[in-house]
């Protein structure tokens, strides 16, 4: 017996704003918006729900995200869990510029100089990393 990673839930002061940011980062769409209290996003489904469920049961799937309204903002501490994103159709610098334009901010969590990744924070301060590019010509096996 096994389980599948299907959802990542993130507490948020403004779920719609954070969902919009992450839709821009990941090219996701809003699945459901429960009056701004819970906003669920994920990849644009290309098949009916029953086929998506069969694929999920069959192996790893791209997880969706849910943003849930909470009254308090993020505490000032490094996240114990963070996302790593990789550009798939551009170099790292081009993607960095795009993420900053979407509302990300560079942040320091003690990573030091000369790293191959860039530490960023989303509009509510949740850290994530921009890692190497997986674009053709940028990353080869």
TrEMBL record:
Domain Glyoxalase-like: 7-130
Pfam families: Glyoxalase_6
InterPro entries linked: Glyas_Bleomycin-R_OHBP_Dase, Glyoxalase_6
Coiled coil stretches, renumbered: none
PANTHER family found in the cross-reference section: CONSERVED PROTEIN (PTHR35908:SF1), HYPOTHETICAL FUSION PROTEIN (PTHR35908)
UniProt protein name: Glyoxalase
Species, as recorded: Amycolatopsis coloradensis
């Amino acid at each position: 017996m096994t389980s599948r990673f299907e959802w990542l839930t993130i507490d948020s002061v403004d779920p719609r704003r954070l969902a919009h940011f992450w839709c821009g980062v990941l090219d996701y769409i809003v699945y459901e918006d429960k009056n701004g209290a819970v906003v669920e996003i994920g990849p644009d489904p290309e098949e009916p729900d029953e086929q998506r469920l069969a694929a999920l049961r069959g192996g790893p799937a791209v997880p969706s995200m849910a943003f849930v309204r909470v009254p308090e903002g993020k505490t000032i501490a490094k996240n114990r869990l963070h996302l790593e994103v990789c550009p798939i159709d551009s170099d790292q610098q081009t993607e960095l510029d795009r993420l900053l334009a979407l509302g990300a901010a560079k942040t320091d969590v003690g990573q030091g100089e000369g790293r191959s990744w860039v530490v960023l924070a989303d509009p509510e301060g949740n850290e994530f990393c921009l890692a190497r590019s997986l674009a053709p010509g940028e990353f080869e096996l």
